[in-house]
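Technical annex B. To support the medicinal chemistry partners, we prepared a structural model of the target in complex with (2Z)-2-iminopentanedioic acid, based solely on the information shown next.
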Amino acid sequence: MNSIKEPATRSFMEMVERRNPAQPEFLQAVHEVAMAVIPFMEEHPEYVKANILERMIEAERIMIFRVPWVDDEGNYRVNRGYRVQMNSAIGPYKGGLRFHPNVTLSILKFLAFEQVFKNSLTTLPMGGGKGGADFDPKGKSDKEVMRFCQSYMTELFRHIGKDTDIPAGDIGVGAREIGYLFGQYKRLANQFNGILTGKGYAYGGSLIRPEATGYGLLYFVDEMLKKNGDSIKNKKVVISGSGNVAQYAIEKTIAFGGIPLTASDSDGFIYDPDGIDTEKLAYIMHLKNVERGRISAYAEKYGCPYYAGEKPWKIPCDVALPCAVQNELDEKDARLLVRNGCTLVAEGANMPTTPAAISYLQANGVLYAPGKASNAGGVAASGLEMSQNSLRLYWTREEVENRLKVIMHNIHEQCKKFGRKEDGTIDYVKGANIAGFVRVADAMLAEGHV
Ligand code: NDP
Ligand code: 2IT
């Protein structure tokens, strides 16, 4: 954190580092917020007096638990499960579950912390949380995944509730896992309610929730470009990932007339110079969601280049949308993007751009949107799913999508309000962090020192 110039921010970060050793991702997420919020707080002494930021970085509660399960060969297996309940000032804890072998407490704390600000930006009544396990669903049979989900929920169920904490999906947790988790919750609690979001439509899910993060990302990109009298039509778009967020980011890019050129997974990326069209996207969806195969199969099927072990940022583009994982776009990648003429980077993933890369992009005039603003569409649609569950009715696709559009527009407006620079451009990092902070901070002030 040696780039910090401001003394108050530096001493704050020194304290955070001391109290959270060996949690690099959490420190990175706090650092970004602190850089934007501490100078703002200095103009608002009520937040300083109430020590709001120091209170915000301390999770209200964290559960860490053993998850025992039995594999198909009859072996006894064990994983570590987590739920981080970060902040409930503006609503019940809300945020996804990640099942991935690299999951650590640091990663879940960073995700839960980001979620607090993101959920605040949606303007819906949702606090922030995140959870998951170091379980790898890849290569596991459906029955193994089911047994794991049942065991995970057997502990989690006592900590969550429709008015307490409402998990959803994230990396490695999609429709299949949410179904198994919901089934086990219902059995244990003997209650059918909106305890999870991202549910199947047959049992209380919302239309547009599967699409919402990717669609919301493109609505946000559209807002960013519109402000400059531009649009995504005919723009070359480089996308990482090929999971839930990437798939629907590709779909909406096509709908807006942009040209998606790449998709990736943890083994490498494909580059389709003709653009990924609707038919090819249907193939990716089947490959990833049904066959659970590797993206390299796309290159074999359509005869285009595949780059094993590489990231897509070297492909010349106008717009880059990182939609896979944290810290997947570093300064070297940012330099390549700028050199090749990229003018906009918007995050579908959480914290995919490293701090050095963000500084480089911003210094070189690239429009850059942090995930807490640009990927908030997913959790916003989760909030709409919760509303429908409470009302015990279903809204149409149009109704949900229109609300999603309005929410993404409002997030952009909030970024404009708090991030406008003297030259009229918007610092989206500053805008998103301050706007997200203010609502939570005001609620915390009103609720007292709890
Ligand atoms: P999925 O599990 O559906 O897809 C994840 C994608 O990222 C896969 O293509 C996966 O490849 C790839 N990936 C995972 N780890 C790595 C890695 N180390 N290097 C390169 N690629 C990797 O998850 P989602 O699409 O739901 O999530 C993607 C990102 O979006 C995450 O950062 C998540 O936190 C964020 N997000 C998700 C939301 C949602 O509603 N789902 C909402 C907002 C943000 P492989 O198959 O090889 O693992
Ligand atoms: O990072 C995120 O915003 C998500 N994974 C979605 C959270 C949710 O509760 O829908």
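Notes passed to the chemistry partners:
The chain has a mean pLDDT of 97.
The chain has 17 helices and 13 strands.
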